[in-house]
Amino acid sequence: MSGWQLTPRARRDLFEIWDYVAEDDSKAANRLEQAIYESCELLSKSPLAGFARENLTSVPVRFWVVQPYSNYLIVYDPAAKPVQVIRIIHAARDLRSELRR
């Protein structure tokens, strides 16, 4: 059993991200997807590794920057067992608006 899980919205985010990147380069999309999975695995082992953003949401979630793809953020609930990935969002988007969805 994995120490993390994607919510349905996070699964949609991942599919949309992969699809968008794959339009230009499917191998790059695969590398990005793998980096996201590796980040999720890291967060399952160190759930407080991310950072809080009280200016964006009052919900007790944390944010993690996907490495080496620093334009992508993982929004997750570190208290959930397993760690729950709530959203995967490009940093250029309106984060406050995206988190209200």
In short:
This protein has 101 residues and is α+β, with helices and mostly antiparallel strands. It has helices at 8-22, 26-45, 95-100; strands spanning 4-6, 62-65, 72-77, 83-90. The protein has a single domain (4-94), classed as 2-Layer Sandwich (YaeB-like fold), CATH 3.30.2310.
Would you spell out the secondary-structure blueprint of this structure?
Layout: E1 4-6, H1 8-22, H2 26-45, E2 62-65, E3 72-77, E4 83-90, H3 95-100
Helix pairs in contact: 1-2
What would you say this structure looks like, in words?
The structure is a single chain. This protein has 101 residues and is α+β, with helices and mostly antiparallel strands. The protein has one domain: RelE-like (YaeB-like fold, 2-Layer Sandwich), CATH 3.30.2310. The chain contains three helices and four strands. Helix 1 (8-22) packs antiparallel against helix 2 (26-45). The mean pLDDT is 92.
